[in-house]
Amino acid sequence: MTPDSGLPTGGAPALPPEDSYYQAPSPEETLHYETWMATAVARIWKIIWAMGACGAVILMLWRGWTWGAGWLLGTAVSALNFRWLKQLADSLGSSTAAKPRKAVFLGLRYVFLGGGAYVILKYSAISLPAALSGLFVSVAAVILEILFELAYARNGTVHH
């Protein structure tokens, strides 16, 4: 580094100073955060399936089997998308080589979703509005988990 500018010389990246404010988490902290995240994800899965089942029963009683089936189909696709996004997030920090086939599939999943919606609309009795509403189940489950953490983690009643 040049003394007056603070810029690295020779194109090499500057290393953080020894008294840097960042410290890598200890193994105990890492284990705590991994356990906390695994518990939160498990709760999200439970919320997804509970909302899917309850919504299907309510819609089946209220609007008929086509709406209940549409909701279940949307919930299943939503859960599958949540699984794919979780796998993507898990792979971001891994040291394994990236698989181009997976990247293409992740990019095309919305094309598959649109094709499925077209088939439902054109050739099936399943309710498209119910299926499209079911697609938001995983989003609602994540929001409920955030609210759960805000409500219970603050006072220390949730043990991860």
Q: What can you tell me about this protein's structure?
A:
- The protein is mainly alpha-helical and 160 residues long.
- It has one domain.
- Helices cover 70% and strands 0% of the residues.
- The chain is built from five helices and no strands.
- Helix 1 crosses helix 5 and helix 2 packs parallel to helix 4.
- The longest helix is centred in the N-terminal third of the chain and has 37 residues.
- The radius of gyration is 23 Å and the shape is flat.
- The relative contact order is 0.13.
List the helices and strands and how they pair.
Layout: H1 27-63, H2 65-92, H3 100-123, H4 128-134, H5 137-152
Helix pairs in contact: 1-2, 1-5, 2-4
Quick structural summary:
The protein has five helices and no strands. By secondary structure, it is an all-alpha fold. The protein has one domain (27-152).
What keyword list fits this structure?
160 residues; mainly alpha
Q: What percentage of residues falls in helices of 4 or more residues?
A: over 70%
Total of domains: 1
Note the beta-strand portion. under 5%
Major sheet details? none
Low-confidence stretches: 4-12
Q: Could you state the order of secondary-structure elements as H and E?
A: HHHHH
Overall residue-averaged pLDDT value = 80
